């Protein structure tokens, strides 16, 4: 009798220009078995997405250079099936509507507690029913 194969680690790309936030988030999510890749700009995110497959991407809305909506649009052209969660410390209803209209899976405001973020990541990856994520 063979043992069931555990599901592959969820692959997450996080694009945020705050190095300290990336470091803490990456460590906390890695401890929970998520394979985390972090980059500090939209341009770097595009380069990484060209060479790798991800289940979910988290993109900060406000960054130097390319903002999160621009990154979202490019990510969705590159990989239409990629679930993108917009994360921002500068939340606004208008930005949320724009992100969802352009294909974002969801929208969360910083600071977001880790358990809530994990639920949204798992739901976006199809590993948890969406109704439990909200």
Q: In words, what does this structure look like?
A:
This protein has helices spanning 19-30, 42-51, 68-78, 93-101, 114-124, 130-133; strands spanning 11-15, 35-39, 56-60, 83-88, 106-109. It has a 5-stranded parallel beta sheet with strand order 2-1-3-4-5, with helices on both faces. The chain has a single domain, classed as 3-Layer(aba) Sandwich (Rossmann fold), CATH 3.40.50. Helix 2 (42-51) runs parallel beside helix 3 (68-78). It has 134 residues and is an alpha/beta fold. The model has no long low-confidence stretch (mean pLDDT 88). The protein is globular.
List keywords for this structure.
alpha/beta, Rossmann fold, five-stranded parallel beta sheet, 6 helices, 134 residues
As for the CATH topology, it is Rossmann fold
Q: How many helices does DSSP assign?
A: 6
Unreliable spans are none
Strand order of the largest sheet: 2-1-3-4-5
């Amino acid at each position: 009798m063979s043992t069931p194969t555990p599901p592959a680690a969820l692959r997450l790309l996080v694009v945020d220009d705050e190095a300290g936030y990336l470091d803490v988030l990456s460590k906390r999510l890695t401890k929970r078995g998520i394979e985390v890749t972090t980059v500090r700009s939209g341009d770097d995110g595009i380069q990484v997405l060209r060479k790798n497959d991800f289940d979910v991407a988290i993109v900060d809305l406000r960054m130097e250079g390319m903002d999160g909506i621009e990154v979202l649009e490019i990510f969705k052209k590159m990989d239409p099936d990629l679930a993108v969660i917009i994360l921002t410390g500068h939340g606004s209803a208008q930005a949320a509507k724009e992100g969802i209209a352009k294909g974002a899976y969801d929208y969360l405001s910083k600071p977001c507690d880790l358990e809530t973020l994990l639920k949204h990541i798992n739901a976006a990856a199809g590993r948890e029913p969406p109704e439990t994520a909200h």
